[in-house]
């Protein structure tokens, strides 16, 4: 769940332009994904993820650009009532190229996403993170995220 005080803080970063994500951003998103995972990006998977997102009426996504180069992206979605929740926002993916990490780009994209959710009447934003991804946990905590009432479950099917 997101603390509302985080939504009210603004941060301007000189030289960084935030804009709506588009299909033309796919090659640079693939490059960012590969730079972060340090292995050849699953090109088809990343391409399909972005295309699927762009088709969703409830999808929200932004990129951060510096001098026309995409250096980060964020993808979210608004979801209707389900699992006992009211309409909510979900932060599904956020990535910043390693050369640009630590400059507030992820925070700026998240705030833009939160503002978009807020304008559409969403009060709660959810995300998931691996329990041992300390850097991501710290990032999300810095944005005001806390534990939710959900417990992630998994079942392997053979």
Name some characteristics of this structure.
alpha+beta; 5-stranded mixed β-sheet; 5 helices; about 160 residues; Aminopeptidase; disordered N terminus; about 20% strand
Total DSSP E strands: 5
Remind me, CATH topology? Answer: Aminopeptidase
Label the structural class: alpha+beta
N-to-C SSE string, H for helix and E for strand: HEHHEEEHEH
Describe this structure in words.
This protein is α+β, with helices and mostly antiparallel strands. The protein has one domain: Aminopeptidase (3-Layer(aba) Sandwich), CATH 3.40.630. It is 34% helix and 22% strand. It has five helices and five strands, in the order αβααβββαβα. It has helices at 4-8, 26-37, 43-55, 105-119, 134-142; strands at 16-20, 59-66, 69-79, 88-96, 125-126. The chain has a five-stranded mixed sheet, with helices on both faces. It is globular. The chain starts with a helix and ends in a 16-residue tail after the last helix. Residues 1-12 have low confidence and may be disordered.
Note the topology.
Layout: H1 4-8, E1 16-20, H2 26-37, H3 43-55, E2 59-66, E3 69-79, E4 88-96, H4 105-119, E5 125-126, H5 134-142
Parallel strand pairs: 4-5
Antiparallel strand pairs: 1-2, 2-3, 3-4
Short description:
The chain is α+β, with helices and mostly antiparallel strands. Helix content is 34%, strand content 22%.
């Amino acid at each position: 769940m997101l603390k509302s005080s985080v939504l009210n803080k603004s941060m301007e970063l000189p030289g960084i332009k935030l804009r709506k994500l588009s299909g033309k951003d796919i090659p640079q998103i693939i490059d960012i994904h590969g730079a972060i995972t340090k292995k050849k990006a699953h090109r088809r998977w990343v391409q399909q993820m972005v295309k699927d997102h762009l088709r969703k009426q409830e999808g929200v996504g932004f990129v951060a650009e510096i001098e026309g180069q995409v250096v980060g992206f964020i993808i979210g979605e608004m979801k209707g009532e389900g699992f006992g929740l009211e309409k909510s926002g979900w932060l599904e993916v956020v990535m910043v190229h390693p050369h640009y990490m630590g400059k507030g780009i992820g925070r700026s994209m998240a705030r833009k996403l939160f503002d978009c959710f807020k304008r559409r009447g969403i009060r709660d934003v959810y995300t998931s993170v691996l329990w041992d991804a300390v850097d991501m946990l710290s990032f999300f905590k810095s944005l005001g995220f806390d534990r939710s009432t959900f417990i992630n479950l998994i079942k392997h099917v053979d």
